[in-house]
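Hello,

Following up on my earlier ticket. Below are the two sequence lines again, exactly as submitted.
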Amino acid sequence: DSGVTQTPKHLITATGQRVTLRCSPRSGDLSVYWYQQSLDQGLQFLIQYYNGEERAKGNILERFSAQQFPDLHSELNLSSLELGDSALYFCASSVDGNYGYTFGSGTRLTVV
Amino acid sequence: EDQVTQSPEALRLQEGESSSLNCSYTVSGLRGLFWYRQDPGKGPEFLFTLYSAGEEKEKERLKATLTKKESFLHITAPKPEDSATYLCAVHQKRGTSYGKLTFGQGTILTVHP
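Thanks for your patience. The regenerated structure is below:
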């Protein structure tokens, strides 16, 4: 157990739907990162939050959004889902973003 | 733009057959280079961080080294349980990508008994 908790582990949904992925960081970690991993793209950075504020943004689609709450957990919202959004979504956390971080076990999203 | 290229894409070894994985990187201002191990369907597991050229780190059968343009992950006398995908990532020193790691595509290592 890495200490980073992601729920749900698996999610199957239909095209056009909206889903929310949840992440609880390791105790004491203030930064949360979201990554998408698909077979052809590898691990792609989506977005980073630090202590509730957006810190860095990657190639995140406009249909996707995220937030970090006062208790430091984070949610990634994916809307108007397309077949191509099927992937593993990982959350990671770190103390302050200056060092390597710890990944959760991921949420496998399947869009049918 | 940061670029990380790993080679080979896949490597098959016999148990006990030592080898090396390569990670070439292009980044303006390297804050750190990271190696992760990933098992199928699981999250990447942190192995090493290297910060400056000439630095080396070891853990069991693994040894990571860093130069100004690339890093190597040496695997000595591997065992079947070392089979996994090994990912290299770089952390840029400044700019809007603060905190972001840029990952390579990984090397899939298979060790046969």
